[in-house]
Structures are given as structure tokens and as C-alpha cells.
Amino acid sequence: MRGLPVAFLLPLLGALLLAPAAAVAQDTDMLLNTDIYHYMDRIDIRGYADTTVHTDIKPYGRKSLSAVLRRADTSQMGLRERQWHTRMRILADDEFANSKTSAGLLAKVPFVYNNGRDFLAVKTRDFELYANPSIQFGLGRDKNNAYAGRDTTMDLLANSRGVSLRGSLYGKVGFYTELYDNQFKLAQFAGGRLDTVPGSQYQMMFGEVFVKKFKNAPNSADFFTSRGYITFSPLPCTRIKWARTGASGAMATRVWCSRTMPPIIFL
Known about the structure:
By secondary structure, the chain is α+β, with helices and mostly antiparallel strands. It is about 25% helix and about 35% strand.
């Protein structure tokens, strides 16, 4: 929901933090479009899961996903399937990943790749934190769609740096956030979709807000991306999520909103 009054949100947040310890342990969601979604479709079709996998409800929560993978019948799997299954469990199941030990030069560095999966992993009785950097860099040249008034070629650039953080507090509240700084020089067919806002230095770009030109270059974009949410489950059958994310992040918002809209706040 958008535009909820602060007077409503503050008591709700207080209730989440002061909920009884018997509340269901918290988790975060698996990122959409990762390999785990294809794998869950596969084990459901092959009959390896001991329960129905509701593949129409996405994104999957890590706790429920880990439970299905933990109980899957691996005796029917071949060697390569079992190796695939282990990789997917490491990806989704924090307890399984933390049971593994890293090797190599960073094995003795505290909290750094100590589970072989996360750059930074901290787990105590009342607090869990997993952090991973994300870097994308690419250079190219478009020879067929050069911008009008320039030479026959056009330089292309992709440069993104960011970090994703997730974890839980006191087993009651789960949280996730991602932050990215981005600069792009796009090909003409993509840059042509950037519309300049009249009387402003900003451009309109699907899925983002406050997009500027990068060094005033044509077909370029310079913007900051941030998304995040907190989760709480007072009952095993109920999961509350307060988020600032795009419409593709939750099934219900895809009905109400366009896939190309910028992040919104919803409950």
C-alpha cells in the first residue's frame, strides 16, 4: 500500500519488534530469476519433493525453501543431480551453508568467506548478517547504431558497484537491502527509450527514478538504485512484508502496477 500514514506504521513496527519469542523465525526471499527457481520446478516435476511446491507464488522464502530441499528424496537422483542439489542447498539454506568451511587464502580471515558462500557472514544467537558485493563492468562499441552527428562508432559502457545485505534480528524480524551506483552508455535502440523531463536535468527510465546523463553523453544514464524490505510472521500461515521495491518483487503488486514502474513502498 502506498501513502500509509506514519501514525499507522509506527505502532505496526513496534508490534513487530515486541512480538512474543514464539513467533515464527524470520527469513528473507530468494532473488527472482536465480537458478533455484528452475531447480524447484524440476524437483516438483520429478517428484523428489515430499510436499507440494507452490511454484505460482513467488518469490520463495528461504526457510520454506530450505525445508523442501532438506527433505527431498536424493536417493532417486544421479551423481550430477545430487551435486546440483547440494549447490542449491548451499545457495538457499543458511544452516547448511554455515556447516561448510571455506578453503584457500581467506580461510583464516574472520567472517570473510568462512562459509564458502558469502563475502561476510556473521551468525550469533540473536543476530545474523550476510553481505555480498556486486560488481559489473563492461566496455563495447556499437558500429551500426551510432548517434546522429557523431562518427560511425559509439562507445558503450556498463559500470555498476553495489552491495546486498540480509539477515535477521532476535529471530523475529528479517531484513534485506541492496544498494547500487550505476553508470551506463547505451546502444541507440536502448538509449532512445530515455526521455528527458522538460525543464529538468533528469531523464525518465523504466524501473528507476532520478536518472541523469552520464557526463552529458547521449544515450547515457547515471543513477542510484536502492531496494529493501523487512519481514515478520506472527503465525505459520501468515507472512507480513513491508518493502520498498519494484512491482516484479511481489505477485500482488504485479496485478496493480506496471512492471516498468520505479520502486514503491507497500505492505
